[in-house]
Amino acid sequence: MFPSFQGKTVIVTGGSKGIGKGISRVFAKHGANVAIVARHLSVAGECASELRDDGVEVYACKGDVTDQKSMESIAKAVYEKFGSIDIVCANAGIFPSVSLEQMTGEDWDHVMNTNAKGTFITVKACLPYLKQAEYGRIVITSSITGPVTGYAGWSHYAASKAAQLGFMRTAALECAEYNITINAVMPGNVLTEGLEGMGEDYLQAMAEAIPLKKLGTVEDIAYAVLFLASKEAGYITGQTIIVDGGQILPEE
């Protein structure tokens, strides 16, 4: 059973939909103050209103993870509202599909700036406040695509997800002296809003390729994040947890 996160404040980038919404919901369920960061305030606000129905403090923030000043402003506002920033979930990410032959430099930069640089900017903006916490936790949403597997059309995405892990390992060394840990979850195929419109046959085919014969849920990822953010996980840093139902295991 997970401990209460009562009195802890968590920032979740990309926290209004998909895996990010699942992370926001699970932290709220366990008593944390949650700051949801999204590019559109209306979307963040809708998610925040939904979670507030559970009687927890939720703060909707409009922010751009590629913009240092934007994230610094959010970190300052969250700290002023709740009095601490204890946990940062660098979850914001994009995954447009384009073949290597058709990919432009602009396509590459757009994905790398959001996924890899956005992780760095988020962590840097929150670091001064994490250093003041009883213990700080940073959890990155990476992927099996890039660090472990490949997928046609996602070479830029794969590179960005591998880059996050390289950043994580060195950041873990620099953050350790402040009692801040930084780890990553690596999801496999997860049922999100983006997949639901693909049709039942497509989803079933995806599920059949997974040893557990089912797609992951956003909560499956969120509970791995929750564990890494807990006090009990305080001796784990610079590490990854693959949450994929065994997807990467078969040799064929």
Automatic annotation (TrEMBL):
Q: What is this protein called?
A: 3-oxoacyl-[acyl-carrier protein] reductase
In its UniProt record, a GO molecular function of this protein is: 3-oxoacyl-[acyl-carrier-protein] reductase (NADPH) activity
- Organism, by scientific name, is Caldalkalibacillus uzonensis
Family, as annotated: Belongs to the short-chain dehydrogenases/reductases (SDR) family.
Q: Which residue ranges traverse the bilayer? A: none
Keyword hit for Magnesium: no
* Annotated keywords: Oxidoreductase
Has the keyword NAD been applied to this entry?
no
Residue intervals of the Ketoreductase domain: 8-183
UniProt EC number: 1.1.1.100
Q: Which Pfam families match?
A: adh_short_C2
NCBIfam families for the chain: PRK05653.2-2, PRK12826.1-4
